[in-house]
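New here. Your pick:
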Amino acid sequence: MKNMTLWIAAFATLSSGLLRAQDIAVDWQGEAGRYRYVLHVTKPGSGGGNPTLTMIDQHLDWEGALPVTSLSLESSKLKFSTEDPDASYVGEVSADGTSIAGTWRQGPPEKLQFVRATKETEWRDESPHSVQFINVDHDVKLEVLDWGGPGRPLVLLSGLGNTAHIFDQFAPKLTATYHVYGITRRGFGESSHPRSGYMADRLGDDCAGGH
């Protein structure tokens, strides 16, 4: 309800400003210092979920998206914030709608310019794995990454709060000896997000791959 209220407020602001919701409902990517950020914005009411921020190099997890707890656009000024970490951004959308120049505050302020990502320029997960989805429960599928390798199977299981992409840099170091897999638990990343099934026994059954 909180996120819905925030989106309604943002949409009301957009309707009276120079920009519209669809003008910023894309992926924006930018760098500040040694970190890369991806801001994912969807149209209000589109069913595409709430806005998120991925801090690729800080979390070592390509899909470690954080919820954006507030987002607003007044005229061409964009503001958003996150709660964990406690951070905020204020920027100005360019006249042609292709970039946002502003300041990121997570500790000392840093200049951060976002640019509109395209299919040609978007940052991609370059870890050498294949991706498949395994059905483990009624309407529940888990994302399984396969890095290959000639040896016996080795399964890397991400902790709660991460996806299997947390191993994107580490897993290839093991493929000379093992056939390496990674599992993203239910409720995270691209795996299913059911309302129930998060007790220890059920999570264990998920990883065993059966009902």
